[in-house]
Amino acid sequence: MNDSIQRDELKRRLDNGDPMVLVEALPERHFHSGHLPGAINIPHEEVSALAGTALPDKDATIVVYCANTGCQNSRIAAGFLRGAGYRNVLEYVEGKADWQEAGYPLET
Fold this sequence. Notes:
With 108 residues, this protein is α/β, with parallel strands linked by helices. 39% of the residues lie in helices and 15% in strands.
């Protein structure tokens, strides 16, 4: 099983309206300065407290991302979610920087 997703595949799924929950694992101030379209904010240090209510469906496709390949927040959050029994967790490792580099918009 591949636990990551690349930009082009994520963009295709978003454009197609594929059901998924997009989660930014950065602190709230970074989320408010711009996030991927439709994303919710669950900072990595709050994932254990917020996942149960923010992500009630453990079978849902969940895509977690953070700032860039050097940022570990998405890895930490995705690892917690998998350990908590979420079955379809993908990590967009390249994150927000990669998205912007491709010229795709952020929401604020």
